[in-house]
Amino acid sequence: DTAVSQTPKYLVTQMGNDKSIKCEQNLGHDTMYWYKQDSKKFLKIMFSYNNKELIINETVPNRFSPKSPDKAHLNLHINSLELGDSAVYFCASTRGTDTQETQYFGPGTRLLVL
Amino acid sequence: RKEVEQDPGPFNVPEGATVAFNCTYSNSASQSFFWYRQDCRKEPKLLMSVYSSGNEDGRFTAQLNRASQYISLLIRDSKLSDSATYLCVVILPPKGNMLTFGGGTRLMVKP
Known about the structure:
The complex is a heterodimer. Chain A has no helices and eleven strands. Chain A is an all-beta fold. The radius of gyration of chain A is 13 Å and the shape is globular. The mean pLDDT of chain A is 91. Chain B has strands at residues 4-6, 11-14, 19-25, 32-38, 44-50, 55-57, 60-65, 70-75, 84-91, 99-101, 105-110.
């Protein structure tokens, strides 16, 4: 059973398009995250949601809009895709917001913008 | 200066060797520290938390030096399966449980 799943696994699209990535966790966790890992392998936090409420937004462009329909799902919609958006996007979850909690990552979505 | 810095490597070591990685962090108020492991084209996974007194988990030992603002990971008796990228992770106040990652150190263990 997959704890944190993401769809799609791969996404190839043209510049200017709008696309969505979905994330689901079956761990019963309250907090979910989106991270971006660029071509240089740096992982950076983008957003964090706790019980469907946004708690962290790390100066991500407005073209990125997360949506959490319930606490088990956190989707990421990207408008007007740019070449620089090409990266691997990881979803993660934790039970709560305690700093010592283990974050469980999804397998990643590899986005390539042409 | 980056918030969390690591030597990217790669570290090429023979099986059975002992290898150590260091990581420095810039914010002295940092609260929590971890080592994550990331295999090629896979997601990061928690290897171990790093406690002030240092801690050990089998062949892995993590140390924290708050005065010098660095953490270390020591791997004894390296196995081929230890080949991966090791990510130093810090929680920077006041960012709650938001992880800040170093760029990773790549380890390759050869037969």
